[in-house]
Each structure stands twice: as structure tokens, then as C-alpha cells.
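tool_log.txt
---
The assistant was asked to compare two proteins side by side. It first ran the structure predictor on the initial sequence, then on the second. Raw inputs and outputs are pasted verbatim so the downstream comparison step can read them without reformatting.
(1)
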Amino acid sequence: MPALADRITANLAEVRALIAATCRQHGRDPQGVRLIAVTKEQTPEVLVPLAAAGVLDLGENRIDHLETMGAAAPIGSRFHFIGRVQGRQLPKLAPFCVAIHSLCDADHITRLGRACTAASRRIEVFIQVNVADDPDKAGVRPGELAERVDLARQMPALDVVGLMTMAPLAAQGEQADEATIRRCFATLRGLAERQHLPRLSMGMSEDFIPAVAEGATDLRIGSRLFR
């Protein structure tokens, strides 16, 4: 089996080529797509080869692992919190993260704004939307989105840049068909346009191609990079 660094380099090249090809097909500039390497299940050994390949945006979903990776990360690394937010974590997240992609609860928005102000930090936030109305997924319902966006925009330390969603699953827990996934992503794009938000955090290892086709600006890709 190739060494870890070689695997990461080869996998990144493949993913970037697919992103570029999809962008060309849909008249997009690949420079408008940010690849976030989801390192939540990895060890710090992946950080150097990722940085060497130009990937400094890293996705984490637990504060303890975020602290471990943050202590080992190369200079210039940018951490994105992509997991379900817990209120008690917010003061710890504020100093570490450049962005939080999974904000949805009104109380969490207020508490994060205060934590960032206390830490003298201004961070990007994405409001997570449960487009598929899946009871197992977090996120605000589309009908409540405008209220959450307005609340977040009132927080001086929060820069509301976009929306986030996760693609739906089929009834058996498998990945949904591509048409269903694209409808979900297209719906999020429409919601963002109505809220005048420029960024769309959508698309993971199994569905980043339809996400790019529907306008994703931030891809959260994990297992595809490390297999």
C-alpha cells in the first residue's frame, strides 16, 4: 500500500480533477470552490501532507479532537467546525475556528456571538438547514431560516456568509439517488439567494460532484482523501 502522504496526494489530485471537470461542465470557476479536508477521524500525521498539497482548511466535529489537531497543525491552518453544536462548547470553539458550518439553534447563535466578542474574534458562520426535513439531522426548517439569519446578522462578531445542508438518505439508509440529492442542493441554493448569502457548504465524499453542479462553494470531504 502506498505511504500515507502519497495516498493523500493522489486522492487530492483525483478530487480536484473531478471538481475542475464539473465546474467546466457548468460554467463555473474552480477557484470559487473551497475544499475542506474533514480530518475528524484522522491523526495529526495527515496534516503535513495536506498542507504540502495546499489544503489548509480542515473540518472537525469534536472539541477534543479539534484541540489535538490544532496543537499539531502547520502555520496557516484554518479550522472549520462542521459537527452538531453543543452550547457548552461554544466558548472553546470561538478561539480555534475560522468558521462554523452547523449553526442553527437561536440560543447557540446568541451564545456564539457573545463568546466571539469575549475572545475578540470575528468568525464566519453558516446556518444549517434541514432541507430534507429529516428528523435524524440537525438544522433549521426552511420556514424558520429568515428569522435565524436575521438573528445571526445582529451579532457583531459573526459574519453570516452562507448556508449548509447534508444530502438526504434513501429509506434504507443508503445514499439517495442523484436526482434527489440535486433537488436538495438546488433548494439550498434558492434559499441562500433569497437571503443574499454567497456561500453554500454542501457536498461530501459521496456527493460532492452534484453539489458542485448545484453551486457548492465549500465542500466537506473526508474519507475520499484518506482511503
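(2)
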Amino acid sequence: MIMKKNITLIFALCTYFLSFSQQTTVYSFEILEEIDAPAWRKTKLSIEEAESIKADFILLHLDTYGGRVDFADSIRSKILSTTIPVLVFIENNAASAGALISIACDSIYMSPGSTIGAATVVDQDGNVAAEKYQSFFRGKMRATAIESGRNPNIAEGMVDPKIVVENIVDNETLITFTVDEAIEHHYCEGKASSIAETLKQANITDYNIVNHEVTSLEKIIMLLINPAVSGFLIMLIIGGLYFEFQTPGVGFPGAIAVVGACLFFAPHYLYGLADNFEITLIIIGLLLVLLEVFVIPGFGVAGVGGGILVFAGLALSLIGQVPTDYGFNIPDVSRLTEAILVVLIAVTSGLFISIYLSSKFLQDSRSFGQKFVLNKTQKNEKITLENNLSFNSLVGKTGKTSTPLRPAGKIIIEGQQYDAISSNSFVETNVLVMVISSSNSQLKVRVA
């Protein structure tokens, strides 16, 4: 009995000391670029990995001038939804969308000389966006500040210069805090010059940092969503379809188009750019084009409509969407011009290159491509009639029907059989007939 109690006591003491010696796990990742699709996917994967390893803290190393509102909102929502405390270390800048992301974190630490704020929504040219976007972002900033226990009026003042916050800003200036100002108004927990100092400020001493690593697959995906690469993939799709229509049944150009479409849509879908709506547009557009080509030849409503739908689907796949106050998303029109230009250049280039290659490899009789296509023309061969008889020389001669003429059939003249058509409605077999004319290798006869 005494032995059992001793074993239990030893086990309890070991468990007690191990609990003190266990290191705190800190999962760290960084966003040191524009807030865009890659930043959102990196955040999503990082938080999910931190949750899978049961990390005690998540540390975000942030330095950004801002970026896409839709992706910033997705990052914000992901941070707020995790049960793991999130710390952010701001090195230099947390402007615009970066401010929203920072406010969503549980604790904010800033390097000397850094700033946070200036969150007015602007378009691609730097002009202030429409009020509906400002309203949406103000609401998100306010709700996020309330959720994280910070002054919501200050958060709104970072977006709208008309917001007056007493003793901080008048009604003509956006709020942008320095480190000391952020600490004073509870928008920063402390000043730190490094990640190590940030953890020290947060009273995390005995820790193990697990850094997010970008896999080779992620690097490939990030490369594929580059606008230049996306444009090249669109060229492959257009070129493959063009050659498939030029050489039906071959399959290789069609396979290239399918591979190009997969490489284009898969990464855009994973990064939240392309959605089911854009993919549906393109599928419907392609079906209309195929209908025009194979069912109702010409170039009418189906072909034009299908081309427009394909073009629209490709363009919308490049720009993503922006949430609204009404619970649905709309295309980010501020980037629509750039997307249309990319698709227009890619489609035009794809068509011109395809036409050029078609003339070089499919129409040149000496080219390798001739092995995959049928000749467009057949050689004319001189046809000689048996016994060198001219059809015209048979006019006026008589013969017998070898089959009924209804009105076409066969007749025999001087032992030779010919195609014939009756000028009468119907002629039985073994009836004497006379040739009255000939045309297109066929004799016209009447009953003799």
C-alpha cells in the first residue's frame, strides 16, 4: 500500500515539474507586402496550422501600406474567429487595410518610428472610393475595435476625416497614430524593436517559435496568379480551342486548352479570386460558342453572346469581389480596367499567334502539321468512259431498262449499263427507251 502511494506521489511530482518546464509554443508568420490574395491565403493556412499544432500564441509580423478591402476583411474575420490569442508586431507601417488587420489582433506592438491608421478606401489610382465602400469599411473598423476592446470612434476616424474625436483629431484629418500616441489611446500595448522584444513585452519568456514556411506548391500557385502568367494561360486556352476547331478529332490542342484552364482557374479559385459564378459564365459561354460552330453555323447571337460571357468570366476571375452592406458581394470595379486589359491582350495575342501558326504548320504542305489534318482539296482525276464512249454520242440511241425508272434507274445500250432518268413519271423493266439528252454523267430518256 505504501509502495503504491509513493509511486502515485512520484508521478504527481513529475507531472507538476513537467508542466512548468513545458515551453510556450508561438506560431509566427509575416505579411510584409500588399494585402492581396497571397496574404489572405498565407493567413488562412497559418492560423489553421497553428490550431492543428495547438499553439499557445500566434504572432503576426506586419509591414504594409494596405491593399484589397475584401482580402483584408477575410484576414480580419479569420483572426477574430480563432481562439488562440493573436499578437501583431508592426514594423514601420500598418496603414489602411493593415490597420484593420492590426485592430483585429488581441495585442498590438509597434517598432520605434512606425505608424498605424490612415484607412480611407481608395481606388487603383489613389482617388477616394465611393461612399458605399467608405461606409462598409467604417463599419468593419468600428465592429473590429469593439470586438477587441478598443475605442470604436478612433477606428472610424482612421477611415473618415469627418469623424471628430475630442482631443485627438479635428474634422479635416484622418487619424494616424505614432507609437506613443497609439500607446496613449490604447491602440498599442507596447514599443518593441524585434519579435523577441515583442514576446518579452507580452511576458512570454520560455517559448518555442514555429515559423510558417511557404511550400513549393504555394510558390507555384502564387506564380500562377501573377497577371503576366495568367495572361499566358489565357493565350493557351484560346490557342488550344482555335487549333481544336481547325483540326477536329485530334485532341491534343483541346488537351492543351483544358490544362491551361485548370492552371488558370485552380489557383484563382483557391485564392478566392474566381468563384462559381465566373466559372459558370465561362462554361455557358463555351457551350454557346460550340452551339454556334456545330449546330447553327454562322456567327450570330449564340457565338457573340458566348464570346462575351467567356471574356467576362475571365476578367472577373482576375479581380475578386468586394462585400457590401447588403450581405452580398460585387465585383471590385476599381481593378476591372486592369483585368479587362490583361484578358484583351491575352485573347488578341492568342488568336493572332494561333492564326499565324496555323498558316505555317497546317496549311504549308511541307510542314509536320499536315500529318494531323485532312487535305483541303483533292486532285482532279480524268475519268474515261468505258469503250471511250462519250455520253453525248448516245443521244438518239435506244436501249432497254434494266431496272425500273422511278424516275431514276439503270438502262442498257449496246451491252453497256448507264444511269438514266426518265422524262416520264415511271418506266417498268425491259421497256424500250430512247436517249433524249445527257447531263452530269446521267442520261435522260423517254419511252421509245
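---
observation on (2): The CA atoms of residues 243 and 358 lie 8 Å apart. Residues 386-447 form a domain with the OB fold (Dihydrolipoamide Acetyltransferase, E2P) fold (CATH 2.40.50.140).
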